[in-house]
């Protein structure tokens, strides 16, 4: 499996956004969240680069970020930074679902239990 460069770029973008939030507004929560989510996404990109890829961490983190930042975008109406991260997260979510569809575990029901 090739290296998940787009996943690493996504992770770096989220982490850089947290750093910029701290630099511009002195927001420690922005710094902490940006670095934490960036680290999770970076590790998710590492897992996607393995053979076979394991996309669940990156999928879950992208889904959470899309929901959280989408709600912030809806409240504030500002494209930056919430709308940008929301759109980027949805794009990463769709890309991961399409690219790694065959590697996602399927839920199985138990019969007769």
TrEMBL record:
Name the GO terms of the biological process aspect: regulation of heme biosynthetic process
Q: Which residues form a coiled coil?
A: none
Q: Where in the cell is it found?
A: Membrane
Alphabetical UniProt keywords:
Membrane, Transmembrane, Transmembrane helix
Q: Which Pfam families match?
A: Tmemb_14
Under the heading PANTHER family, the entry gives: TRANSMEMBRANE PROTEIN 14 HOMOLOG, TRANSMEMBRANE PROTEIN 14, 15
Write out the similarity annotation. Belongs to the TMEM14 family.
What's the protein here called?
Transmembrane protein 14 homolog
Q: Which organism is it from?
A: Drosophila willistoni
